[in-house]
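Request: Give me one sample?
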Amino acid sequence: MTPLKTANLAYIGVIHILAYFSIFLLAIITGWISLEVISRIIGTGVLRGSVEFTEYAIFNMAFLAAPWILHKNAHVRVLVLTEQLSERRRQIFEKAVNFFAAAACLILTYYAGINLIDSVQRAEFIFGELVFPEWYVQWQVPLAFSLLSIGFLKLTFGSGPANLLATAIKV
């Protein structure tokens, strides 16, 4: 197996693990909210931290599932312009958009990474119903954007007839 295929399998494995972790967080949210409702009905009060945990978990789920969503081509796309283009021009346009999306994700990865490092070094905590280090809600951002960068680069320079250089030469 070539190193590129090995790296691709590792990438796919990581994005699947993160997607499963997102599903796990959704299951925890569902269970916790259900317990919250039951506890209110039977009069035992509220479960402390459930709303706050849900807010942070949804934030995590959005970032951690994003690379898998891109891999499955289930992300939001605006097709109004591309539907009017010829097949070759549409492919070029999509490759260019994917390239710029990868560049944007790389820039966001850089700044999110700096922010994460600063957060770890400051060792600050978030105080609410739950108390935890600030970086607990920041680690997934540079990870997600780096994986999105890889995903967009794969879409840009992928093999087959949609390859940017091959398409550009045929126009």
